[in-house]
Amino acid sequence: MSDTVPDEQPAPHPAPVGPEDDPAAPAPLGVPRTPTGNADVDAALERLGDADHLATDGHVEVYEDVHRGLRDALTALDARPGPPAPPPSYPTASPSSYQSRS
């Protein structure tokens, strides 16, 4: 046994944690966004990608914006005139024919 005291070395400091090493850092989820063919809907879905680079507390603003855009796109669909109604497939009696009966 030796009476000499070993040289004390300071404890090593952990390396600084960068955003790519931080498990709590924002990271893309990798969820594919398939185009729908509707420009308004596709723009709203692409906006979801903005949440990939934000902390969790920033997601709410993006989600509310996307929800608003999708709601507006659906409202616009309701505002457009649809195709004309098909004619009935059976003959209809005119109201005047009922009045001529005695």
Which features would summarize this protein structure in a list?
mainly alpha; single chain; 102 residues
Sequence-ordered SSE layout with sheet pairings:
Layout: H1 39-47, H2 56-79, H3 95-99
Helix pairs in contact: 1-2
What this model shows, in words?
The protein has 3 helices and no strands. The chain has 102 residues and is mainly alpha-helical. It starts with 38 loop residues before the first helix and ends with a helix.
Shape: rod-shaped
Proportion of residues in β-strands: under 5%
Largest sheet: none
Total helix count? 3
Helix content: 25-40%
Radius of gyration: 33 Å
Distance between the termini: 131 Å
**Global mean pLDDT:** 77
Low-confidence stretches: none
Name the structural class: mainly alpha
Return the string of H and E elements: HHH
* Total DSSP E strands: 0
What would a concise description of this structure say?
The protein is mostly helical and 102 residues long. Helices cover 37% and strands 0% of the residues. It is rod-shaped.
